[in-house]
Amino acid sequence: MRDDFAEEVKRVIASRANQRCSNPDCRATTCGPQDDPAKFLNFGVAAHITAASPGGPRYDATLTSEQRSSASNGIWLCQNCAKLVDNDESQFDVGLLKAWKYIREHDARMSIGQTAPPVQDTDSQRKCRKILQWVGKQVMLVKMATPQQEMSMGARPWASQYVAVLECNEFYVRLKVNDAITRSIPLENLRFGRDDKYGCIELLEYSR
Ligand SMILES: [Zn+2]
Question: How far, in Å, from the CA of 173 to the mean position of ligand 1?
């Protein structure tokens, strides 16, 4: 006689853990899509804190059948951690598993409805996003003095002209200088200014 969890109880245990492994050193995501668009993959296990049957890990004879098969006796773990905790019940005792469960459910509760933390952009991604708003429009391209020119004249704009932004990716921006000439400039050579006269951005081009 095993006091297994009913499917509905397993769903409760999984959802209360937000489908993540409760081992704080693991916290693996336990479900995701399969190739078949109608199916999902489950890598999680509703593990018994105290075993479902006599002789199992951490078995507690004082529990009733209902208590043993209730969600309060379950902890959501990934398949690896579920094996781990059942192989060594002296290291992974009831107190430890209950602590894991408490922490996981606390974290899951605090994260409900919270937006994900913003992913940090690289410098190039930031530049690219800024330039993308100007695709198809005119911007001012300002060539800054080369290091040699700077030595004799100081750091100042060397030449400037209006150009059209054709496209931009994480590495370079392509500009239409006139009907005959397009130029690609690496984003690492660009900084930004503001052209107040026409209300557009300035692309400050530094030569390396
Ligand atoms: Zn795990």
Answer: 44
